């Protein structure tokens, strides 16, 4: 049990304060260190909120000393905890979520689906993951193959007829961002 405790021990920020730098009144002073978090004063804003609170308290108590040293407290971004919190949220929160939701290009898949005894339709999925406008793509397929073609789902186009081989060529010709490795021919599938 005591082993576990030892390995989980978290350093107390106060313990890590080097005493020789506390409280930064030796002359000549070049960088003022915060005795609470042991960092130069301008880095206090990057400390966890609990530590920042102590940093702020220390500054308030030592305002005279700081202004004597020519430190502009207002410029240190610490005197207003609300704005500091807002900044923190912007940095960590929404941006990351958005990035995760961004779609990565996947694979364009073609499949031949039996329709009746000798007829097939060709299904294309995955074009939308390359940011391709499905309506325009469907129109293009209809023109090139002189057959019906329609957008039939979020990311699915159905072309009337078995055009798989020609379709691969057409896709490679039309969209540079798609190369052969991005196309998978599933062969004949049952819907
Ligand atoms: Zn500090």
Automatic annotation (TrEMBL):
Protein biosynthesis found in the keyword field:
yes
The residues covered by the SUI1 domain are 108-175
Recorded hits in InterPro entries, A to Z, give: DENR/SUI1_TIF, DENR_C, DENR_eukaryotes, DENR_N, SUI1, SUI1_dom_sf
Pfam families of this UniProt entry? DENR_N, SUI1
Please indicate which superkingdom the organism of origin belongs to.
Eukaryota
Protein's UniProt keywords contain Transmembrane: no
Region feature (Disordered): 1-21, 82-101
**Keyword terms:** Initiation factor, Protein biosynthesis
- An example molecular function term from Gene Ontology annotations: translation initiation factor activity
Q: Which GO terms describe its biological process?
A: formation of translation preinitiation complex; translation reinitiation
Q: Where is the composition biased (Basic residues)?
A: 86-101
Q: Give the protein family.
A: Belongs to the DENR family.
The molecule here is called Density-regulated protein
